[in-house]
Amino acid sequence: MDNQWWKKSVVYQIYPQSFKDSNGDGIGDLPGIIEKLDYLAELGIDVLWVCPIFRSPMVDNGYDVADYRSVDPMFGTDQELDGLIAAAGQKGIKIVLDLVLNHCSDEHEWFRRALKDPNSEEAGYFYFRHTEDGQPPNNWRSNFGGSAWAQTEDGRWYLHTFAKEQPDLNWENPKLRQALYDMINWWLDKGVGGFRIDAITFIKKDLSFASGDAKDGALYPIENFQSYPGISEFLTELKRETFAKYDAVTIAEAPGVSPELFAEYAGPDGHFSMIFDFNWDHMKGVSVKCDPDSVSAWRSRMFESVLHTQEHGWSAIFLENHDQARCPDKFLDKDKHGRDSMACLATTYMLLRGTPFIYQGQELGMTNSIRSGIGEFQDVSALNQWKEGLAQGRSEDEMLQELNDYGRDNARSPFQWNAEQHGGFTTGTPWMPVHSNYREVNAEKAQADASSIRTYYKGLIAFRKSEEWSDVLAFGSFEPALTEYPSLIAYRRSFEGRTLLVLNNYGGSLELPLAEGEVVFGSVETPEIKDGKLNLLPYQSVVLTETE
Ligand code: GLC
Ligand code: CA
After folding, report:
1. CATH tag for 477-547 (out of 3.10.580.10, 2.130.10.10, 2.60.40.1180, 3.40.50.1100)
2. What is the pTM of this model?
3. Separation CA 343–CA 324 (nearest Å)
4. What residues pack around ion ligand 2 (CB closer than 5 A)?
5. Which residues line ligand 1 (CB under 6 A)?
6. Which of 103, 270, 493, 500 could covalently link to 166 via disulfide, CB atoms 3.0 to 4.6 Å apart?
7. 276, 253 Cβ separation under 8 angstroms
8. Atom of ligand 1 nearest to the CA of 163
9. CA triple 252-443-283, angle to 5 deg
10. How many whole angstroms from 24 Cα to the centroid of ligand 2?
11. How high is the mean pLDDT of the chain?
């Protein structure tokens, strides 16, 4: 049997700016996380992924790293990070840091030296190009909008897959690679549990730098360069020189990995322990919405992905992260937001095969905030998209709607701790306003309420990790069930002769013919099987045992 510890883990993601402010400057920080470790331990999670806390000008909230080895003063001190690793460790919680390897900040000393001296060693750490005509070297478009090239004062162009303040690192350069490996091993020696690895599929470029075929005359999207041939050599070396020497977990953000490539990335001998499963998450414009067609479309994509994964490797499963809308808004109509529907979403994904991730505030049922103008958005990507959208002739209303529905700021509003001012997040002025519903939706209230969504999450985590069922839920096979019911998301998990049947009803009341089984977990009242039938209420989740 498999003994990789992270297969039984439940990971909690922290966006440090917005988790807990300890000193009243309005920005969440490391002492704030330490202060709330008991809250997290009580929830039952055992790994904490902390988004970047390294020195950074914060153009992309820390994903623009100016020094990979030191903590930004905004978040605290290097000692406080050591303190967090130790204090979490005492509670059985491992810390996973965010590793940004595709790019750094334009304020990193490497880039500064490269700017100052085109012949410096560091100039070779980036992609600089000259052009004769004053135009960018090609028509590639950055992920955040606009050209993927920016010009230096002395007229050189450099490549940036994301914001222009995030110059791409030249992985072709062995010295650069070694510098990154040294840094990674330095963190592993400090005792971190592993890394979430940012945007890793972008590290290999098409070195011909030819313009892409942008049919509409617009710029060519750089997404088309994900997982470019040749990336395998880089990733093999990365693992060999770093992670493989430790018992570390590695969770890669690897958009663009096709099913054929999945095993190479996240198979038993893959480059990483797991990669995020984006296959059934990116549902722009599609909502579960209690309507059978959309539920079954969602289900097909989910099942297809999990069936593939179980044959070839392991994935990280999630409903939310810091780049996305909140899950109730993503998956449910507004009038369907409620404790039961959120519990149904939670049960649906957390008992699948893979390592479940919970994003801060998801356990409280935090939702999107509606912003009334572009001035209320802070995310660099939102601001770029806005400019680009208007330049393409889209209306302000349409752009505002899109950013309100899908924008990354949705997930970044401060955590709601209690009903006090600013939700107890800070005693000062928060860097981003707290959602107006904080008096209703907050941790203190949720913890005290046996029927809250948070209490349900806690029970679900305990069930997932229970001695009785953790082997079945971690290692058990996955098999779709009862797909003839369009609004039901049902599946079996089986291991060594024991089976769990997981039922999640997204439709109206349902009578299921079930001969036998014992209910072991559920979201509402515990139903019974009577006369060969089980009745499910709308949004009810039930888990039954079946003996083979
Ligand atoms: C990843 C991160 C995102 C960041 C981007 C650039 O997609 O999740 O927040 O902006 O990489 O580092
Ligand atoms: Ca602070």
Report:
1. 2.60.40.1180
2. 0.97
3. 19
4. 21, 23, 25, 27, 29
5. 60, 63, 100, 162, 198-199, 253, 322-323
6. 103
7. yes
8. 6
9. 40
10. 6
11. 95
